[in-house]
Amino acid sequence: MKKIRKSISRDIVGKRFQSMLSVSKTPAECRRLLEVANKSFLEAINRAQNNQILDLSMKLEVVYYLEAVLVLKHLQRPGVVTNMTVYEWEKRVHHQHVTPECTAYFTVIGVQLHKTLTHQVAAFALTENEEMWFKIYYEHIRPTFLKKNSTEEAFFVSSSGKKIYKVSNDLRRYHNRFNLPNITSQFIRRICETWTMKTCSDADKYIFASYLSHTNKTADRCYREKILTDLCSASLLVTRAGTSSRISGQVKNSRRRTEEPEDDFMQPQRKIRQFTRFTKQQCDDS
Fold first, then answer.
1. Please, what is the Cα angle at 194 between 191 and 200, to 5 degrees?
2. What b/e sequence results for 190-211 when a residue is b if at least 16 CB atoms lie within 10 Å of its CB, and e otherwise?
3. Is residue 136 part of a domain?
4. What total number of domains does the chain contain?
5. What's the CATH code of the domain at 70?
6. Is residue 10 one of the residues assigned to a domain?
7. Residue 18 lies in a domain
8. Angle at 160 between CA 166 and CA 153, to 5 degrees
């Protein structure tokens, strides 16, 4: 009994220590890895795009960086990254998001299997460059990991061709490579939530919580069936929390979209209906 009490006390002290550390961290500091690793990542992704030979370390560089983008920038839980499937990638929806300040193009992906499966489909909105990175990984790097006649459905796979075992382990190794303190999903989500509470309106707090897939109104149907416009607004809000302007998003020789929407971009209302039907089907199946 005495040993149990000591163990509990250590756990409490550890949690208080982590809480104390979180006070001194900013979203930008938590996302330092994305800035430091950006140069080596772009080198690897450019080589893959140009069909140049990549060694294993460069391939893993791409995998780890994309995982970090989802966890540290888009604040998705590791379970979302692990369980995202090829089917969900192929069903992604493009959306032209218009605000008074600008017009932006996003790619929205819904993931059914994750920690809060019983409440709603997890979803995130990638920028144009991020979608291009994911596409290059999917077409040029992922196939090199798969075994012959593989039926692996996971989008992210390890060098053995199997579903990634633990995203948190990958991110820990990636942080260690650049001599940075390890930042977990839970830690950065808490930091950004604190930032939101201090700086955002009630409306922004709601869409922020929706993007993170947790809220007190989890039974609200309109929360489960996330609307594309809200998702894109939330993505801008989430990624603005400490994102450094020094992080480059350019891929050499990439094709840039014009101000006019491409032919393969459906009209916004059609896309909203399509994604709503998809998320509703996913929730009903669960």
1. 125
2. bbbbbbbeeeeeeeebbbbbbb
3. yes
4. 1
5. 1.10.443.10
6. no
7. no
8. 70
Query: Does residue 156 form part of some domain?
Result: yes
Edge-first strand order for the sheet with 103-111 is 93-98, 103-111, 122-126
CB under 8 A, 24+ apart: contacts of 84-89: 84/109, 84/111, 84/154, 84/155, 84/156, 85/111, 85/153, 85/154, 85/155, 86/138, 86/153, 86/154, 86/155, 87/153, 88/112, 88/155, 89/134, 89/138, 89/155
Q: For the segment 188-246, what is each residue's pLDDT rounded down to a tens digit?
A: 999 988 888 887 888 888 778 778 764 444 333 333 445 777 778 878 888 877 544 44
Range of the domain at 270: 27-249+262-285
The reported pLDDT for the residue numbered 270 is 47
pLDDT in tens, 92-124: 988 888 777 778 889 988 888 766 555 567 888
Q: What is the CA radius of gyration of the chain?
A: 19
Paired with 123 in beta bridges are 110
CA 31/CA 26 separation, integer angstroms: 9
pTM here? 0.76
For residue 35 the two structure tokens come to 């800035």
